[in-house]
Write a structure and sequence with these properties.
Number of domains: 2
Distance between the termini: 20 Å
Largest sheet: none
Shape: elongated
Helix content: 55-70%
Structural class: mainly alpha
Order of helices and strands: HHHH
Length: about 80
């Protein structure tokens, strides 16, 4: 299944705006989000990417200390999902 299969069409968006939320629609949306979570959990782990994310979190925690900007140099793309 492709991500685009999970996304509503533009017509669905227009319908959502004009239609009140119902328990059924909320339930359907929750199931959709849970499917996304399951797909993310099946992604392979990448130690280098996880360390990079740890470093980014550390920089974000140091608000007010430094610029908060991050520069990453890489010879190639390590992960397609970052």
């Amino acid at each position: 299944m492709d991500l685009e299969d999970e996304l509503p069409s533009l017509a669905d968006d227009e319908e959502t705006v004009t239609t009140a939320l119902t328990p059924e629609k909320i339930h359907d949306e929750l199931e959709r989000v849970q499917r996304f979570v399951q797909r993310v959990e099946r992604l392979p782990r990448n130690g280098k990417a996880e360390r990079l994310l740890d470093a980014v979190r550390l920089i974000q925690e140091r608000k007010g200390k430094g610029s908060g900007k991050i520069v990453i140099f890489s010879e190639r793309i390590a992960c397609g999902f970052i």
